Fold this protein.
Amino acid sequence: SQQGEEDPQALSIQEGENATMNCSYKTSINNLQWYRQNSGRGLVHLILIRSNEREKHSGRLRVTLDTSKKSSSLLITASRAADTASYFCATDGSARQLTFGSGTQLTVLP
Amino acid sequence: GAGVSQSPSNKVTEKGKDVELRCDPISGHTALYWYRQSLGQGLEFLIYFQGNSAPDKSGLPSDRFSAERTGGSVSTLTIQRTQQEDSAVYLCASRDWVGGTYEQYFGPGTRLTVT
């Protein structure tokens, strides 16, 4: 079974709105990462948050991590049509392999 | 610089045939991963190579699946006697372990269709 589980599974918003996606996981981690995937092909790394961090920003992205609840959220502010993609969280526990969730499909309507 | 490349980008094969998928990682990256992604699903870990260590094969779904990495660079994933449930996108990723970075760099994937 997947270590990380995202919700919602699908999210549709208007351009300019904010999009929030959540991820829950089960075991202890060294870090948690968010990836983006367009059209079911290669994944692009967005942001990494370490287990001792609570919040991190990168451009329009904001990631939070709550290790006590084993959860993370990804916020995309001022969304654009080009943000339409699938977003995956991935946990890095052994610092070797990443365990991916099932993803959130984000659609940003122009 | 060049990223991770995979070939072929698409492969259609008949049930029962063997297929080979190739991954060229980023030069110098010591860690290489294979994942499988079924339609609309997340990534399923298959196998991991790190330097000269024995590969972690814990994710391979059956003995029809095997992979090798020659010379610490190019990797080939082989699926023998393909089944329809093997249809998926197979993604390869590499990581620079020595550099201490945790980010994995993904290739564009090979879309395998078993008819």
